[in-house]
Each structure stands twice: as structure tokens, then as C-alpha cells.
Specification:
The structure is a single chain. This protein starts with 5 loop residues before the first helix and ends with a strand. The strands form six sheets. Strands 1-2-7-3-8-18 form a six-stranded mixed sheet, with helices on both faces. The protein has a four-stranded antiparallel sheet with strand order 4-5-20-19. Strands 13-14-10-15 form a four-stranded antiparallel sheet, with helices on one face. Helix 5 crosses helix 11. A hairpin with a 2-residue loop joins strand 11 and strand 12. It is an alpha+beta fold and 428 residues long. It contains eleven helices and 21 strands.
């Protein structure tokens, strides 16, 4: 890796300080876009214009092509299209090309802010209070997107450019599948390493769980020779929920991994949707439950599918009501497997040195109870990828926030890392 003179990095850090108000303004503008998964296109257009006009990067912009990736082992099956989603990639071509190339990659999509009425301020109107910027997506992960853009911008405005190729990638649909990142890699947008600005408090991730989305459908009406017999599906839904939570409990008691020893329940199941009934004076007879179950390293998506199907079938086989019409299990969305990283690789060492140069401390490690796009780089493209980003809170919840001072520090860490990994040359 390259050794960068102290005075060069000092100059670049001063550029970050001088442009800090611009960075915060850019972040606020980005938060104002309601880029819920499947509706990222306006925000992507704003980013593409900035990369092209302000950073003089070559910009590619295209939609994920399902036909190209549907047979890829990392593909997650979808029940939606990508008509209003696209991928944006800004490229710098260095004189050393792929020698120490680097991808800075983040997702532009955010989750729903509902119920909006419970927010302290409108979720798409950013508000700064006590050093925290509040808004949907502020932490996950638009604060990190701003940091990676302005780290590159500071290097250029200080009069330098990376010696190797650099890509700034902005992908859609990370919150539901990760197919945006997969599509970009499948099209050949790869490098020697990658950095993803997940907002985990400036700690480098060394492991992450996998994720599988499921849907359980059930009905509580039977046709007999004497007519229909039915039960209340709302009441019966509690029986299905209890079975699902017991499945989670049994998994947690039987499956472990040392990378997640510090977590109480890494195999967390989240039940996110319950739909039963449509009229106050009707007894509901159909319902569905949608949720997510985690996977640990060395488990496969297909194994987890088989386990859940078999458990539901066995649980309700002797049930008086469900024995002849057991709940049906479907799978869609996230089909993601877990990963573990080697934190002694050259890329990690450069990140460690960059973090220490900015903060004066050695970065902590953490295992993630969630799924990120880093898995694609690790599992399918033989690329080192690190999740490391600013501090924030209330991800996917009411009053999401990002700590602005950590955004500034992360911007400087990214600039150090980019300079040290790819090397710098003066712009003539």
C-alpha cells in the first residue's frame, strides 16, 4: 500500500473541514428524497448529476436486469420490478488501473417511515438537534453515502487523484434483497476491495447473519357435507405466531457460531406483517404472516427453508383444526447467507491505520445482527469487503438519527483509506 506524506493528508483533512457545511447540506438534500425500496430513481438521479458535474466522474446508470441474475446463487426472488429503481456508478480511471482498485458502495433505498404521525418531526425533512441529524435514512445509510462522496471530493479538491481505479457505487433494493448490488457486480463492476458505509458506530464488521424472508398463509374455513364450518382467523393467527416463535427458540438452542457469541439471540425472527380480516361484522377466515428469520455461517438458505416447512407441517399435523389444511409456507425477498471476514487482510489493515490516524484509537470489531451487501463480495466474487460507517440510531424505527461529528470523522477515515490503498498523484 502507498505511504502518504503527513502534509498531504493534513491538506486533505483541512479540505474536508472547509467543505463540511456543503457535506451537511448535501446530506440534508439526500434525506429529503423519499427513496423507499422500489422508488430510488429520483435520489439516484440527484447523485448521478453530482458525480458527473461536481466530481467529473464517468457515470453509468442502469436498472437491475432480473433475467441476467435470476439464476445466480446470490439472487433473491422478487414479487416486484425495478422500473423505478436504478444503479448509479461513478468511475475514476487511474493510471495504475486495477492494481489497488477500490469500490465505495452504499444503498440509496430506505425503509418505510410509517407511522409518520409518531415522528418528532417529518421524516423527510431533516432536523439537526444536539449534533444529531434526524430523518428517515439519515443513518441507514445516507450519512455514509455523503461521507464517501465528500472523501473523494476532498482528495480531488486538494489537488490529487487516486492512482488506481475508484468506483462510487449507489445501489437500490438493499433493504429487501440486495439484488441491486448483485446486478452491479454481475455486470463486471468489481475491484480489489470494497468499503460499505453501514452505520455501526465506526466499528469494522467481521461477521454478519444471513436473512430469509417467509410468508405463512392459512385459512380457517372448511367445506363439509353439511356446509361450511369456520373459525376466527384472528384468533387462530395467535396459534401460528406461537409456532413460529417456538421454531425460533428451538433454532437458538441448537445452532451457534463463535463469531456471534456476544449476541443473546443472533437467530432472531422478526414478524413484520399480519393481515387478517376485512370487515368488522365478518368473521375472518384467511390470514397471512410475513417475517424474517436469520441464518448463521455454515447454514444455507435451502436448509432453513426445509427446516421451517417441516416444522410447520409437523406442528399442525395433529391439530384439530389445521390437520387437513395446514398453513402454507412461501419464500420471497431476502435469500441471503451469512459471512465471516478475515480481519487481518491488507484492506482491514489499511482501514485500521486510517481510523487510528483520524481518531487516535484502534477500531473495535463487531458482528452484525443484520444482513448487508458485503456478502456478495465475500461469497461470490472473491473480494474483500468491509462494513464501516458513522454512528447513528433508531434504524428502521421512529426518529432515526445520525451523529454528524461521526460523519465528519468517517469522511476523513475514508479519505485516508482511499489515499493509502490506491495511492495518490498530483493533478496536473
Amino acid at each position: 500500500m502507498a505511504t502518504i506524506a503527513d502534509e498531504v493528508m493534513t491538506h486533505i483533512e483541512k479540505e474536508i473541514d472547509a467543505s463540511w457545511e456543503d457535506e451537511v447540506a448535501f446530506l440534508k438534500d439526500l434525506v429529503r428524497y423519499p427513496s423507499i425500496s422500489g422508488e430510488e430513481k429520483p435520489a439516484q438521479k440527484m447523485i448521478a448529476n453530482y458525480l458527473e458535474k461536481e466530481l467529473d466522474m464517468k457515470v453509468d446508470r442502469f436498472q437491475p436486469n432480473i433475467d441476467k441474475i435470476k439464476n445466480h446463487p446470490g439472487f433473491s426472488p422478487v414479487e416486484w420490478d425495478y422500473e423505478n429503481s436504478d444503479i448509479v456508478i461513478g468511475q475514476h480511471f487511474g493510471e495504475e488501473q486495477e492494481k489497488n482498485s477500490l469500490i465505495l458502495q452504499g444503498h440509496t433505498d430506505v425503509v418505510s417511515p410509517e407511522p409518520v404521525g409518531l415522528w418528532s418531526s417529518p421524516p423527510y425533512e431533516p432536523v439537526v438537534t444536539d449534533g444529531k441529524l434526524y430523518g428517515r435514512g439519515a443513518a441507514d445509510m445516507k450519512g455514509g453515502l455523503a461521507a464517501m462522496i465528500f472523501a473523494y471530493r476532498a482528495i480531488v479538491r486538494a489537488g490529487f487523484e487516486p492512482k488506481s481505479n475508484v468506483m462510487l457505487q449507489f445501489v437500490p433494493d438493499e433493504e429487501r434483497t440486495g439484488n441491486g448490488a448483485l446486478a452491479a457486480l454481475h455486470e463486471g463492476y468489481t475491484a480489489k476491495g470494497a468499503l460499505i458505509p453501514e452505520p455501526f458506530g465506526m466499528k469494522a464488521a467481521v461477521a454478519q447473519v444471513g436473512s430469509l424472508w417467509f410468508r405463512v398463509k392459512f385459512r380457517t374455513v372448511k367445506k363439509t357435507k353439511h356446509g361450511n364450518v369456520q373459525a376466527n382467523a384472528i384468533e387462530k393467527s395467535q396459534q401460528v405466531i406461537a409456532a413460529l416463535k417456538n421454531f425460533e427458540k428451538q433454532l437458538s438452542e441448537s445452532v451457534t457460531h463463535p463469531a456471534f457469541a456476544d449476541q443473546d439471540n443472533p437467530l432472531d425472527m422478526n414478524l413484520g406483517v399480519l393481515e387478517v380480516g376485512d370487515f368488522e361484522s365478518n368473521e375472518p377466515v384467511t390470514g397471512k404472516i410475513e417475517g424474517r428469520i436469520a441464518l448463521l455461517p455454515n447454514e444455507t438458505v435451502n436448509e432453513r427453508k426445509d427446516q421451517l416447512r417441516e416444522y410447520i407441517q409437523q406442528t399442525f399435523a395433529k391439530d384439530d383444526w389445521f390437520n387437513d389444511q395446514p398453513p402454507e409456507v412461501e419464500f420471497y425477498g431476502f435469500h441471503a447467507e451469512a459471512t465471516v471476514s478475515d480481519d487481518q487482510t491488507p484492506l482491514f489493515k489499511v482501514l485500521d491505520a486510517s481510523h487510528e490516524a483520524v481518531t487516535g484509537t484502534y477500531p473495535e470489531r463487531r458482528s452484525l445482527p443484520s444482513t448487508t451487501d458485503a456478502r456478495f463480495f465475500h461469497l461470490y466474487y472473491d473480494m474483500d469487503a468491509i462494513c464501516y460507517g458513522p454512528d447513528g440510531g433508531n434504524f428502521h424505527e421512529i426518529d432515526e438519527w445520525v451523529d454528524l461529528e461521526s460523519v465528519k470523522k468517517v469522511t476523513k477515515v475514508y479519505a485516508h483509506m482511499l489515499a493509502s490503498w490506491s495511492g495518490l498523484k498530483r493533478i496536473k
